[in-house]
Write a structure and sequence with these properties.
This protein has helices spanning 14-26, 35-46, 64-72, 82-91, 107-114, 125-130, 172-181, 201-217, 242-255, 267-270, 303-307; strands spanning 30-34, 53-57, 76-79, 98-100, 119-122, 139-145, 167-168, 185-190, 222-224, 260-263, 274-286, 289-294, 313-315, 325-330, 339-346, 354-357, 378-382. The chain is an alpha/beta fold. Strand 4, helix 5 (107-114) and strand 5 (119-122) form a beta-alpha-beta unit. Helix 2 runs parallel beside helix 3 and helix 8 (201-217) runs parallel beside helix 9 (242-255). The two termini are 30 Å apart. Bound molecules: ligand LLP. Residues 38-271 form the Orn/DAP/Arg decarboxylase 2 N-terminal domain. This is Diaminopimelate decarboxylase.
Length: 384
Amino acid sequence: SGEAAVAHAWWREPAERSRLLDIAAEATPRYVYHLPTVRQQARELKSLAAVDRLHYAVKANTHPAILRALAAEGFAFECVSPGELESVSAGVPADVPLLFTPNFASRADFERGLATRATITLDALHPVEYWGELFRGREIVLRVDLGRGLGHHEKVRTGGSGSKFGLPVEQLDVFLRHADAHGVVVRGLHAHLGSGVLDAKHWGEVYSQLASLAERIGSIAFLNIGGGLGVPSHPGEAKLDITALDKVLREVKAAYPHYQLWMEPGRYLVADAGVLLARVTQTKGKGSWRYLGVDTGMNSLIRPALYDAWHEIVNLSRLDEPSDALFQVVGPICESGDVLGSDRRLPEPRESDVILIAQTGAYGKVMSSPYNLRGETEEVVLDN
Ligand code: LLP
């Protein structure tokens, strides 16, 4: 059943659980975000002594209260679209640094990005080859492809030959020639290989590879080793070891103290902070399966359908009852893939019970859709 699989199951605390049941009594489906958990995760990452600047990858969750909480913790922000840039610019103090890291952006997107205070990341020849005058006199960041990708699912790997991201290192000299011709200075190097990585060694490898490339280039002041910091989701998966990460980063920094070190985590900060509350609609026996239906599905949370992602599911109304029945937990969407959890051991449910889907603070609401015109899933923020 995934007992204790989630690192910060704040919602198991009796007081939080009863707050959640009250919130669900008003309306479901609803996402609920617990800001103390966001702050706790933020402080853990702030303990990384080698890291000079942490950017929150806002694509994971763009709720304004989360942006404000992380700005208050001293985070900078990483945005991938003009829309993200504009909403972050409006929501955080004007002195907070921003990064714009788009992929296959249009010329118009770059024009909008350049109109903000963000530092721009390029990851292809095309912008410097054809739109060089846009970036004239600018300091930019170059995202490279280190030739490999990794992550919790094939679809979240962002490096290697099967991925559309990053400048292949073989094109570095050509890129630098175009940049030079337009007076564009490459001040930073960036790599992000994928999402949901639990092995601390990974970032040490990226860091030292970027540092040795930087030695070749000469104009580099900082290295952005990306995000991708995973949280354990399956029962039995080990947590990312932050102390080990601190150690590997400090080792590389000792060899290359002349570069600033930047990171840009998304999921790690917000995944555990969010839960999705839904209500039991119907149950059904069919063949060897029992189905437990709830009032939202892949329209609110697409990760199980898209990545086979595993989210812990509990019956919040019956947390103390024995879980002795097996269910397919499904939503109301007209797709066979609308399964939130397969083979889940849960207590015998009743209509209107509140079902909690855990670890949905990252890539939940932001990836939701109006499919089947089920309506928007509301968001509620909890703070102390
Ligand atoms: N930096 C860059 C350049 C990225 O592309 C991403 C994520 C991040 C940072 C933040 O990665 P994180 O720390 O959150 O792993 N929708 C997928 C994840 C896609 C991630 C896309 N890029 C999921 O639900 O697992």
